[in-house]
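hey m, so remember when u said the tokens were messed up on ur end? i reran from scratch. heres the input so u can diff it against urs
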Amino acid sequence: MPERPPHPTTPPELVYGRHPVLEALRAHAPLDKVLIQQGTHGPFEVELRNLCRDANVPMQPVPPERLNFLCRGNHQGVVAVVASVAYRLLEEVLPAIFQRGETPLIVLLDGVTDVRNVGAIARTAEGFGAHALVVPHRGAATLGPDAMKASAGALNWLPVCR
């Protein structure tokens, strides 16, 4: 039996270029990750790393070919992937649950890399009353348009934490 081709996915929204990415981080835009060209050093790299750390956004060094593949414009060695959801801090979500006198039901994901699976899990979790969905900081699917579609909108209602 021939192998099926991979399911097409909607390309993520991107912010690229040094100043646009820095400003997106400063404005606390919901970002899934920042891709920086391997070998980038100096004041820009330090500032970017610090802003990513403060915003809890993973920064990943990648070869220039990956950046060239993702965007046709002048990326200046940095591309940010915009998230379809705004990430919350678990430390902010838990007190509100306890204040309502409820026992927290938190769904933790580990190693789920398919965006449609994340969306389906979010849809199911929201349906059975979960209070939050926690995704890993690294090694997880990007919560973009395909995850939002697979969740049938549940990602708009279920707090997502990293």
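this time it looks ok to me. The two ends are 39 Å apart (CA to CA). if urs says something different then somethings off w ur setup not the seq
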